[in-house]
Structure formats: structure tokens, C-alpha cells
Amino acid sequence: MGVMRFRNVVAVAALAGFAFSSPAMAEPQVEVLHWWTSGGEAKAIKVLVDDFKAAGGAWTDMPVAGGGGDAARTALKARVLSGNPPTAFQMKGPSIQEWHEEGALTTGIDAVAKDNNWDGVLPASIANHMKCEGKYCAAPVNVHRIDWIWANPKVLAKAGVAMPTTWDEFNAAADKLKSMGVTPLAHGGQSWQDATVFEAVALGVGGNEFYRKAFVDLDPATLGGATMVKVFDQMRKLRGYVDPNFSGRDWNLATAMIMKGEAAFQIMGDWAKGEFSNAGLTAGVDYLCAPTPGAGYLYNVDSFAMFDVKGENKVTGQNLLAKLIMGKNFQKVFNLAKGSIPARTDVPLNAFDYCAQRSAYDMNVTSGNGGLLPSFAHGMAMRNAQAGAITDVVTKHFNSDMSSADAAKALAEGVKNSL
Ligand code: GAL
User: Fold this and answer.
1) Ligand 1: distance of its center to the CA of 45 in Å?
2) Rounded distance from Cα 99 to ligand 1 centre (Å)
3) Which residues form the domain of 376?
4) Which atom of ligand 1 is nearest to the CA of 271?
């Protein structure tokens, strides 16, 4: 509702002698800071913007470009430090707790969560991430899986290679592609993308327990041990499979290389599927998806955390935003565009493609066998300082001739110094 219309409503209400309660009439307003600027990401957030406007709200969009959100998080810090936080920020996992400890978040949406039975429709592990001392301070939109390989089927067929199911198969396929002059791995040399590939490799090469010990428990012996050396050996192999222009490339441009047949594989979370869908491509026909070799599942839950802001309109805006985000139909339409699966467990998946159905199936299986593990590269497993320390080493190794043994040693030391 615009200001003029709002005034008119007040005037009419006054003339008619109605009791006018301002909280009920406050125009919902939000200013949302996020980094969803690629084609697929923008299409997905538009679903939320449109729903919010249709419900009578005013949405101020604050996109800060940069995959993985590093630039957006820097912008957020500056906003909070200057005493001017956004109403909501796309935030994840332990960062929600870190911002809560700073006193920056509000649990005002807890009443919306209670009224709409969030505890009953979210897996407990996701719900716990969304709570600040037992009350909801964030609303989840989805579950992204990280450990995926995307491929161009025509390129694979031409080289006579199949989707790999082991890292040895991956290397053999990549060697063959390379010998034919095809770039085996589309990659963007940005540190968060290096970390994304690294955690998928770590899960596959080391297994679920290794991953948990290294990236959840931060066990020094595992971080610096012999298995980690093997993980870095595989990273060195992958470095040999990227094209010469990989440095600094955005992730969606790497996805475009798969679409155009300029490269065979990309290892990336399923927001890559948002790009394929946005280009009108069909899973299983125009592109293939398969989990990276390994038995686990690396999850990444996008959510909107609510900042402690003043003003009735903004508080009303947060409540409306929270309600819409957890809407059953919203979770379907949004995630069809985003490439992820709904956070709610009661959304039917029949409209989703086989990649999404595989994701939901594997999530269910791994949640029962210890294989459902948080992505460290996307802020789900540990605090920012430790994730940053690991990412620094991974990127340094990928972009130099550092040995695997030195990298594993540096990893253990880096984490120790960041604690
Ligand atoms: C992730 C985020 C995804 C996707 C990706 C690339 O961290 O969870 O939603 O946007 O970054 O920007």
C-alpha cells in the first residue's frame, strides 16, 4: 500500500468512525540483502519478491553480486557496524548464531513459526539452525546439495566416457577428454569455488567419518593426516583438468561452458541446475547430474535471518516475509527455479526433476546412516574464522605448486591458529 492510499484508508476509517489500530494497518516493508544475481538465482528470488508485493508489501532489493556471498557478507558487516542493518539477510548455519551473539538478530518471527507449525514441518536439524536460543530468528527456503557433478551428455558421448562413479573413473574420463582437446572441468578460480570442489573431493576420497572428523570436529590429526594428503593429491589432478582462463571466472559462466559443450564436467552445488533450468534445458536430456563419487551428502540450507530493526512496518514486513518463505507452494515454485529442494518435508516432489528427487532420496538415506554432513564451504559446518583458514590453504594449494603434504600440514596449522 502506498503512502497516499494508506492516508486515504486512515481518512475513510476516521470518517466512518472505525476504531483504527495502527499495528494492523502498518504497510509491510522489507529491505533484503542477498547475492542472488545469476540468471537462475534472480529468477528464484523474484518468486519471493512477487509474492511479497502481491500480499501488499513494499520490497527494497539490495543485491550484492558475487557467488557464494563473500561480497554480500562484507556489505552486511558494514551496514550493521554503521547501525543500519537490513531487515533480512540471506544467511546460513553457524553464522546465524554468530550474529545472534552480536545482539543483531530478532526472534520476532517466532510467533509466525508457532502459528504455522514450523517445528512440525521442518527436519529438526534444519529447525535448530534457524533458532536463536530456542526461538526462530531465521526462515529456511531450501536445501542445496553441494556434492554434484554436472555434465554435457553430448561431450561425454563423443569421447566415449560415462558419468564417473569413482574418482579414478573421473580421472580416466578427464584424461581422455583432455587428449581430445576438450576441457574436462569447467571451473571458476575463486576461493569459494575451490573450497566447494575440495569438500566434495574430501567427502569422496576420505569418506563420511573422515569428513566429519576434519570439518565438523576440526580434529588436528585428521586435518593434517595421510588421508588429507590424498585429498590434496586429487585436487592437484583436478588443477590439471581446468582451462587456462579459469582464474576469477564466475560459477555461472563455468556452468555456461557445460551448456555450450566447451567443457565436460562441473563440480558445483545444485544452484547450477537453476542456470540450466533458466536456459530452458532439461535434466537427463540436455545435461546430466550425479553425486560426486562418495557415499555422503553435503547440505547447505539457505535462509533469511531477521535483523533487529526499528519500526512497525519493518516488523510487520519480517513477519510477512517469514510466513511467505515457509508457504508450501512458495517452497515448491522457488526451489524449482533455484535448483534446490524444499526445506519443508511435506512438499510433493512430483513436479521436480530426477536430480531433485535423487537429492531428496539421498538426504533421507544419509540422515539415517551418518552421511548427512554440513558443507563447510557454504557456511554450514563451522564458524567463519575456521572456514576462512581452510579455504585460504585450499586456494593457495590450487594456485601454486605447494605439495599435498605441505598443504595438509598448513591446513591443521591454519585451523589451530584461527581457534
Ligand atoms: C551459495 C548459496 C546458494 C547459491 C550459491 C552461489 O552459498 O547457498 O544459494 O546462491 O552460493 O551464489
Assistant:
1) 12
2) 19
3) 145-299+355-418
4) 4
- Which of 32, 38, 144, 252, when mutated, tests ligand 1's pocket best, judged by the most ligand atoms within 8 Å of its CB? 144
- C-alpha dist (Å) from residue 381 to 26, 217, 232, 320: 39, 9, 20, 29
Q: Is 36 in the pocket of ligand 1 (CB under 6 A)?
A: yes
**78-106: buried (b, 16+ CB within 10 Å) or exposed (e) per residue?**
ebbeeeebbbbbbbbbbbbbbbbeeebbb
Domains identified in the chain, total number: 2
- The pTM (predicted TM-score) of the whole model is 0.94
Q: What are 263's strand-pairing partners? A: 183
User: Tell me: the pLDDT tens digits for 195-225?
Assistant: 999 999 999 999 999 999 999 999 999 999 9
Is the shortest distance between the CB of 68 and ligand 1 below 6 Å?
yes
Q: Are residues 176 and 274 in the same domain?
A: yes
Q: What is the pLDDT of residues 152-190, one digit of tens each?
A: 999 999 999 999 999 999 999 999 999 999 999 999 999
